[in-house]
Amino acid sequence: MKSFFSIGELSCYQNISRQTLIFYDKIGLFSPARVDPDNGYRYYSSAQLDTLDTILLLKKIGFSLKEIRSFMKDYTTDRSIAALGRQLQVLAGRIEELKMIQNRVEHRCTQLEQSVAIRERGAEVAVEPIPRQFLLLQKVEPPHTLEEVSLATKLCFARAFRERLPIFFQSGAIVPLKNIIGGRCTAASHAFLPIEKKCPGQEILELAPGKGVCAYHIGDYLSIGQAYERILAYCDREGLQIISDSYEFAVNDYLSTGLEDEYITKIIFYVQDDK
Predict the structure, then answer these.
(1) Which H or E element spans position 50?
(2) DSSP category for residue 46
(3) If pLDDT is split at 50, 70 and 90, which confidence band does 102 have?
(4) What is d(CA 266, CA 231) in angstroms, rounded to the nearest whole number?
(5) Can you point out the beta strands (E) in the chain?
(6) Are the C-beta atoms of 231 and 152 separated by less than 8 Å?
(7) Domains located in the chain, CATH noted
(8) Which helix (H) or strand (E) holds 237?
(9) How many Å apart are CA 95 and CA 89, to the nearest integer?
(10) pLDDT category, 2, cuts 50, 70, 90?
């Protein structure tokens, strides 16, 4: 075996870029055995190959460069057992999170596939059971314009990601019934994200199972008042009393399309027979 390897040779053998090796040298993680004083070329000894293997393996299984540098200063079997044990716990958490993300992506794909059928079916109004579900809430600040609703939605997402909450990749809004009757159909009181369960320390609304009147609005959000007119007319015709605010669930929105005419919003009210 050769005694020394140039940075280009080591880069080729270990499938690692020259820039990465230079960076490792810069941060004191892995430096060449010698540097030619005349031309600045870096040379690595054959004895260093095992060290680089260890660094790359630790990086592969999720250790940060800072953790690797600290570990490599004095690594023993006992320290390896302790460090790898801790990393197993970290990996278990990541696997659980990835499984949740996979589940949410599958749910989102199903929603988008269903949106095609919704567009074909049109804007009918129907009565259907409302399942139990949970909503992570974010208050919309005055004057409750679309800008404030959008900001509240982004704050809700940021909180969910920061605290690793089990949300679904969907957003929505609560619009008070009085606003809808008053013609302010986009003046939401809260933005929300559907979430798998209640979480301590979070403002989460539980929607109980019940009877609901539902309709889909297809198109840009500013024209959603048309859907509310259909719902109110349907309830009046069928003798249904609306007993809740509106819950708007985005089936297809800016998260999945850049075309507003493809937007689909599901509107739900709790109702009871008007007697």
Answers:
(1) helix 49-60
(2) G
(3) very high
(4) 12
(5) 4-6, 34-35, 42-45, 125-130, 133-139, 172-175, 190-195, 204-207, 210-218, 240-242, 246-252, 264-273
(6) no
(7) 4-73 (1.10.1660.10), 123-273 (3.20.80.10)
(8) helix 225-238
(9) 10
(10) confident
Instruction: Judge if pTM exceeds 0.85.
Output: no
Tokens of 73: 């200063």
Distance of alpha carbon 35 from alpha carbon 130, whole angstroms: 71
Q: Which two three-digit tokens encode residue 211?
A: 């009877």
237: tokens are 């015709």
Q: How far from 163 is each of 155, 168, 169, CA to CA, in Å? A: 12, 14, 15
Q: Which residues contact 40 (CB under 8 A, 6 or more apart)?
A: none
What are the backbone angles phi and psi of residue 120, rounded to the nearest 5°?
Answer: -70, -35
CA separation for the pair 162, 174 (Å, rounded): 23
Residue 141 in contact with residue 148, Cβ under 8 Å?
A: yes
State the pLDDT at residue 62.
Answer: 94
The dihedral region occupied by 144, where left means phi > 0, alpha psi between -120 and 50, and beta the remainder, is left
